[in-house]
Design goal:
This protein is of the alpha/beta class and 542 residues long. Helices cover 45% and strands 21% of the residues. It comes from Pseudomonas amygdali pv. photiniae.
Length: 542
Amino acid sequence: MFATRDSRLLTGRLSSIHNLRLPSAVTPTAPVKPDSEPALISESPARYVVAVRALCEFTAKVGDLDLRFTPSPTAQEGIAGHRTVASRRGADYQAELSLSGDYRELTVRGRADGYDAGRNQLEEVKTYRGELDAMPANHRQLHWAQVKVYGWLLCQRLQLEQVTLALVYFNIVSEQETLIRESFSATTLQQFFEQQCTIFLGWAQQQMAHTQALHKMLGSLKFPHASFRTGQRVLAESVYKAVSTGCCLMAQAPTGIGKTVGTLFPLLKAAPGQQLDKIFFLTAKTPGRRLALDALEVINHSAPELKLRVLELVARDKACEHLDKACNGDSCPLANGFYDRLPAARAAALESPWLNQASVREAALRHQVCPYYLSQELARWADVVIADYNYYFDLSALLFGLGQLNQWRVAVLVDEAHNMVERARQMYSASLDQSQLKALIQTSPEPVKKALQRLDRQWNALHKVQPAAYQAYSAAPEKLIGSLNQCISTIGDHFNEHPQAVDGTLQGFYLEAIGFARIAELFDEHFIFDITRREAGGKRIL
């Protein structure tokens, strides 16, 4: 069975361009905070705004890169958890408290999860599943950094001499709270705040100086060839007008017109006037990335002083140096101490504006960090990013997520856009196979087996009422989706309780189930739910 999002087919060699202002961020483990602040925005040449979360992630992340299989709560579970915590507090409790403060040219803003005026206690709520003791120490350190920054902003606002800070860890399964409290003086919190701001401000000033110099150069950028090809000037003018007016453009151009240069050049020219933060060039295949890199090399060669930062993002299996190792410090040497060495690696990589796969790899290995995750960090600081469609359009797309967090103004160029139809269907479709479920029932431990059996019963109920071998439905079955979500929760708890005994087959089903459930949350009139039955060993299964 699967759910699929429909698409409209556009034929020919197509490029789609749009310019937009992205909304505020949503994180998997925290509720949506309306009107949350951008991570970094220039209000004037000498003023920066940074969100508390972005500030602390830049300054307080230390230790290993650790991607061991410890599934976190979904966004919906995080929202529900925060609401539950707030509902348990008294009348003096203020949820989602907006705070801000200045340090030199920097303005720091954010929303603290809650403040209890009666207790003079500021809370930062974190939802989790499994055993709290299994949480890595560097995660806890990052949480403390966030609440300390909020603590100083609160002390400054209310003229407090001291405040109690509390990390509230909420278990989404048991709904139990674990509070870790500590009292701090305003002086101590101010010192911590200024220390973090000093670290960030030095880097932010360099970044803004780069952007200002780049925009000045782009304003006088000349077309890299002596003349336009037939039809190329019309294409370039159309692109420039589209991005300048903030509208979408669908362009069909024949082979040989020079559409890559003909679209990238006007986007770069429009960047200063439209205050674009990033240009994303998205492709369906590796040759498309190569064409974009070649076009930007031509533009850079025509204006050597430009120093345009161009980043190439590649798939994880193409960038990983140790495919036989897990992404954690105990297994991979490039994950060990990753965040400790990241600042130097980031600075070294950005000494060169040309950040293709080879140059990023060279900088990463020189500083003994993972090339794949270094490239993801560099996406925050590049001017043009060349990547596959999924980096922007997938459910967990890196570039789209960064755009939301930072409220970037971006121009998105989708090359060979006719490929988007099938790719979009793949990204927004999911399927499950009952034969895999039945096999897992035979081998899974309790209570995972019981959860799988409940899901199997709901599946069989659908089987009984469908006479045909194939049938499409306009709605997803609520009982099946409910059992699936319970199954996901049970398997996730099992993995957290037994982190060293992860079964590959069960993990594969778990990830597929999560993907299916996420698509089900999006289900509307653009989706269908269908069931295909087949015969297996004389017995019909879904």
